[in-house]
Design brief:
Elements (H helix, E strand, L loop, with lengths): L2 E5 L2 E3 L5 E8 L7 E7 L6 E7 L7 E3 L7 E6 L4 E6 L8 E8 L12 E2 L3 E5 L1
Parallel strand pairs: 2-11
Antiparallel strand pairs: 1-3, 3-8, 4-5, 4-9, 5-6, 7-8, 9-10, 9-11
Length: 124
């Protein structure tokens, strides 16, 4: 049973920073990619950042809106993925989810098989 548990969300003023964590247990080694998504009320779930974690991986992708402000990383020994978010803006306010899967298109939510429960980020 694969489980993803996010933490690190909260409320912050514009310009501030947060670091989200996503701990993976029961990980299926067929998965090759970890992604961070967000969903604001009334809006579709959108990719924030994604990273290939399989053999020879390390490639990272970011949404245009987060490029240069957010950084995704993965600690294989801890089986934890992180999302460092700097210079946060009110439009970053959303529920943030991590996801894992065997992925060809990292930006597509349908590509990911396993999802966390989400952590709220509020920027004012």
């Amino acid at each position: 049973h694969v489980q993803l548990v996010e933490s690190g969300g909260g409320s912050v003023q514009a310009g501030g920073s947060l670091r989200l964590s996503c701990a993976v247990s029961g990980y299926t080694y067929s998965s090759n990619c970890m992604g961070w998504f967000r969903q604001a009320p009334g809006r579709e779930r959108e990719v924030v950042a994604a990273m290939y974690t399989g053999a020879g991986g390390g490639s990272k992708q970011y949404a245009d809106s987060t490029q240069g402000r957010f950084t995704i990383s993965y600690d294989q020994t801890k089986r934890t993925t992180y999302l460092q978010m700097n210079n946060l803006k009110p439009e970053d306010t959303a529920m943030y989810y991590c996801a894992a899967g065997s992925v060809i298109l990292p930006g597509a939510p349908s590509e990911y098989r396993h999802w966390g429960q989400g952590t709220q980020v509020t920027v004012s």
